[in-house]
Specification:
Blueprint lengths: L2 E8 L9 E8 L4 E6 L5 H8 L7 E6 L2 E2 L5 H10 L1 E5 L10 H11 L5 H10 L15 H14 L4 E5 L7 H18 L2 E5 L3 H4 L4 E6 L2 E2 L1
The structure holds adenosine-5'-triphosphate (ATP).
Adenosine-5'-triphosphate (ATP) binds next to helix 1.
Amino acid sequence: MLLEIDTVTKTYPGAARPVLRGVSLGLAAGETLALTGESGSGKSTLLHLASALDSFDSGEIRLEGTALSGLDDTGRARLRRERVALVFQQFNLIPSLSVAQNLAFHARLAGRLDRDWLAELTERLGLAELTARYPEQLSGGQQQRVAIGRALAARPALLLADEPTGNLDETASAAVMDLMLDLVRASGTALFLVTHSQAVAARADRHLHLAAGRVA
Ligand SMILES: Nc1ncnc2c1ncn2[C@@H]1O[C@H](COP(=O)(O)OP(=O)(O)OP(=O)(O)O)[C@@H](O)[C@H]1O
């Protein structure tokens, strides 16, 4: 199993009740999983825990067999740099860098810049004509395609995506989702996708729902 979430509970400091109450799920290498749930049900929290951005009360999360609870800050940072990539609703591109530089940024940091793969990603994401532009000169859909390309350029084992098309209209959202699913499947990357959209969730291999702190 690539990602194992085992009976995880999470309570935010000062909160009366836990937001996650014994969540368990597994994600195999290359698999795509969509997680839905009402606003405030804890979807983003679970994604943050899986990316080692936050700690949990009990249970365990393992990525490629490594227990996240046992990692120090350096270990967490390395895991995020080398094995996991994130795409959020806000595109989070670096405004002072061109499209080409944004696309290469994380792969460079991870020491895994493969120019052929980057060129293929750029082409398949329809960004080849836009590489010299800056993020402010792109539409929302184009910016999100750059964010997806940047995330996949280093060939992460796991892509965590939090409402990645939440800022886009329905047509752009469907196009970006199709591309993202094609590309994660082409690169063997597993996808853990949080979404409000049932239509988007239906495109994933598996669909789970988070309610009352548990998944079903
Ligand atoms: N840093 C934090 N400190 C305290 N409480 C938090 C924090 N982050 C989230 N929460 C609370 O935890 C609960 C779950 O939040 P989370 O963002 O995980 O939900 P979500 O399902 O992703 O919601 P949405 O669909 O609206 O994005 C909410 O009640 C939220 O207010």
